[in-house]
Amino acid sequence: MENIPILRIAEELISRDCFKGKAIILLGARQVGKSTLLKNLFNDNFKDILWLDAENADVISLFDNATSTRLKQLTNNHKILIIDEAQKIPTIGNILKLFTDHIPDVQVIATGSSSFELRNKTNEPLTGRKWEHYLYPFSFKEMVDHTNLLEEKRNLHHRLVYGSYPEIVTATDNIERRLKLLTDSYLYKDVLLWSGLKKPEKIIDLLKALAYQVGHEVNYNELGNKLDLKNDTVENYISILEQTFVIFKLPSYSTNQRKELRKGKKIYFFDCGLRNALIGDFRPAEIRQDIGQLFENYVLSELWKKNSYENNFGKFYFWRTADQQEIDVIIEKDNTLHTFEIKWNSEKKVRLSKTFSNVYPNHTFSIINPKNIEDVLL
After folding, report:
1. What mean pLDDT do residues 259-271 have?
2. Between the N and C ends of the chain, which has fewer C-beta atoms within 10 Å?
3. 254: how many CB neighbours lie within 10 A of its CB?
4. Residue range(s) of every CATH 3.40.50.300 domain in the chain
């Protein structure tokens, strides 16, 4: 991979929101490139940057009993304050509020790898005072813009096996080892050390079970029985995994029509490489029986990234009936249901269910396969 930095879509979005009188919150998994993005964005253009890492205890202590006067002394002549892993600071919400209300000439940016912790601490204090941005593993569009469409389509098999985390995309050796280390350190740092986990070792077993069920409906009761966990514990663990950007969930779409499944859910991983590392399966894409599941996961995660970066505010669902009519994904936006079928076999013919189209006439329909992914993902 070239030494030229891979431009992140979020860079322009964050730059646009700077110095508008609000704090900026940047959320995303560990090792997804939050610090690199901010260094690329600011280091050449701004010299007056104060960078603090809240994983250091002495940094946290800087904000003990914080007042606007003390914060002004801390920032001194700096125009930008970046606080990495800001969720580690117990009073981060009130601190950011002091900046927006009393030190508006300093742009404060807080990053976090736990959306639950950081959002929970900032939502009330920062009502109307913050912009939120999300960062994910490299997207299809980011990679196409960095190389070209043909190159990235040639790399599709590689992405399905090893994923799109920055370290993995740019590595030239030891990819499987790097991915396993990244997965282990990430999970142990942000998930297994989560306070209040009663059986942290079980969350790995849950993740492995979810990895095998990608593309299929997930039943919390069945998972609980298999793992010897209560239903509410399974639900709590899945929520934690969502909040730490390991997985995302699609509920079933229903308006209480006859035979529509109303309580189903599917779970996907934000990165195929992380999913494969969990189950220790790095076989080439060409010989894998789960290639259809991997492609479906890849497309869903890319659609999720695109929806997030473009601020589309679409809601994601799948649709299925009791007699097995189904749609892989529905994105509801502006009173229109955008429906997609995802097929690894580009020659396979697919039609939208007449049951669905008759009940929901205000819809679009697209088939996504390896030959045409750019039509939807760019």
Report:
1. 82
2. N
3. 16
4. 9-135
